[in-house]
Specification:
The protein has helices at 35-47, 84-97, and strands spanning 3-8, 14-19, 25-29, 53-58, 64-70, 73-78, 102-105. The chain is α+β, with helices and mostly antiparallel strands and 115 residues long. The chain has a single domain, classed as PH-domain like (Roll), CATH 2.30.29.80. A hairpin with a 5-residue loop joins β2 and β3 (25-29). InterPro entries: YegP-like_sf.
Length: 115
């Protein structure tokens, strides 16, 4: 199952990433100044994956990526892929598993493991 992981950037801003079932990043969101805004947009996107559009791009170095657009606003950018087929597989994984993704908040870097 995919997961939306909320983390903090080095700049202090928050972001969320959609991680695949295998632990690879599929896309990264825009930066958010407040954690609650990041959480709210992650939840909103999770519920609206079916109505999102995915715009594909090709870099000058023949790498492929896509942007996730919701309500005419770009909310996330994918990682770079080597082929257009891999881009489509990333999009298919979002459509298939995105609405079932759990939201994990690792933004406070506080981990406690008990025996």
């Amino acid at each position: 199952m995919a997961s939306l992981v909320i983390t903090k950037r080095f700049s202090g801003d928050y972001k969320f990433e959609l991680m695949s079932r295998k632990g690879k990043t599929i896309f990264t969101s825009n930066a958010y100044e407040l954690r609650m805004d990041c959480e709210a947009d992650a939840e909103r996107l999770k519920l609206a994956f079916a109505s999102c559009s995915f715009v594909k791009f090709k870099t000058s170095k023949d790498r492929f990526f896509f942007r996730v657009v919701l309500d005419e606003v770009v909310v996330a950018t994918s990682r770079k892929y080597s082929t257009e087929l891999m881009v489509q597989k990333g999009i298919d994984e979002i459509v298939k598993y995105g609405s079932k993704a759990e939201i994990l908040d690792f933004s406070n870097n506080y981990f406690e493991f008990t025996d």
